[in-house]
Design a protein that fits this description.
Structural class: mainly alpha
Helix content: 40-55%
Strand order of the largest sheet: 1-2
Number of helices: 3
Radius of gyration: 18 Å
Largest sheet: 2 strands, antiparallel
Strand content: under 5%
Number of strands: 2
Length: about 90
């Protein structure tokens, strides 16, 4: 447990899993590989918009791109074949 340097009181650190974070190098490679596997033309509207924005952010920020774990899970789901237009027919 960490202690406050001024008063010595123990500090509790809360980690928020949904808060965007800086992905590790492995996550960046994963993010690039996921984006490369996705064909936007086959996606429904929300998924297409999400992938498009994610690609734009990755092109602009590269390894500084921040993603929450939920965003990474959705991107993995899309890359694995979820959110296709054909799923609704």
């Amino acid at each position: 447990m960490q202690k406050c340097p001024k008063c010595g009181v123990g500090l509790v650190i809360k980690l928020d899993e949904d808060k965007p974070r800086n992905p590790s190098d492995g996550d960046h490679l994963d993010l690039k590989a996921l984006l490369d596997r996705i064909d936007e033309d086959e996606l429904d509207g929300n998924a297409r918009e999400f992938v498009s924005q994610t690609r734009e952010r990755f092109e602009q920020y590269g390894t500084r791109t921040r993603m929450s774990e939920k965003q990474m899970e959705w991107l993995r789901s899309i890359a694995d074949g979820g959110n296709r237009k054909d799923d609704w027919n």
